[in-house]
Amino acid sequence: MPVDLHQSQAVGSLEEQVRDQVDRGAKRIVVAGGDGSVYEAVNGVMRSANAAALGVIPTGTGNDFAKACDIPLNWEHASKLLADRLAADQYAKTIDIGTMNDRFFANGAGIGFDAVVTRIARSYRLPIGDLVYLLAIFRAMADGIATPRLEISSTDFSWNGPATLASISNGPWIGGMFHIAPMAKNDDGKLELMIADPVSRRRLISLLPKLMSGEHLAESEIRHQPVSALLVVSSEPVASHLDGEVQPLQRRFQLGVLPGALRLL
């Protein structure tokens, strides 16, 4: 089958190229990259007036989206399975897409401390894989853990108080190694909200193993709630991320889910 190869030259380049190709009538887009590449590709597809299916070959650091979709993390194995489906004109599944303000996300959004950690991790250029996120956590703790007051509301849930972070998950993993939302499924029409109360540095360190294993939800500082729409208002401009891509400082976050919005190759 014919293949057109396009390479991303800078942040935002992949998104614009994908949107342009889908606008021109492309029906199948395959992206080789990590969660940041998936984020740009998803926004490119979703911003187009046309529809296209997305295939993913994971070559990133965390590959959280690939894990959520049961895509093999070995890129050669993933490529072969993808090629077989393309040749047979088959699709893997249809997934939900999350929204935050005017942007889309495939795997998860974070407001607060995890976004700060993500920003730090993205600044490192170290060949240590997922461990870069652990290094970023310790660096972020050294700088101090901000706890802005968050006012959070949905149709059947409300919460107001200082928080370390609010995590909104479409898939179960973030940062490659953190099983942040074990119950999350990206085809169930809902998102999983997790709120963490203010914690000390020592307490955060003790929570890390449980965050990695997915055993943190019963801890006293953790609140969990499934949601389909959510409004978060912060007392001050706060860091946030979408699929590991850091967003501009904001105070107001309108989140939702688009069930079955994207077809996966």
Question: Short description, anyone?
Answer:
This protein is of the alpha+beta class and 265 residues long. Helices cover 30% and strands 34% of the residues.
User: How much β-strand is present in the residues?
Assistant: 25-35%
Overall 3D form: globular
- Helix and strand succession? HEHEHHEEEHHEEEEHEEE
How much helicity do the residues have? Answer: 25-40%
State the total count of DSSP E strands: 12
Describe this protein's structure:
With 265 residues, the protein is of the alpha+beta class. It has 2 domains: 84 residues, 3-Layer(aba) Sandwich (Rossmann fold), CATH 3.40.50.10330; 156 residues, Tumour Suppressor Smad4. The chain contains 7 helices and 12 strands. The strands form 2 sheets. Strands 3, 4, 5, 6, 7, 8, 9, 10, 11 and 12 form a 10-stranded antiparallel beta sheet that branches. It has a two-stranded parallel ribbon with strand order 1-2. Helix 1 runs parallel beside helix 2 and helix 5 crosses helix 6. It is globular.
Please give a handful of descriptors for the protein shown.
Tumour Suppressor Smad4; 2 domains; two-stranded parallel sheet; 7 helices; Rossmann fold; alpha+beta; ten-stranded antiparallel beta sheet; 265 residues
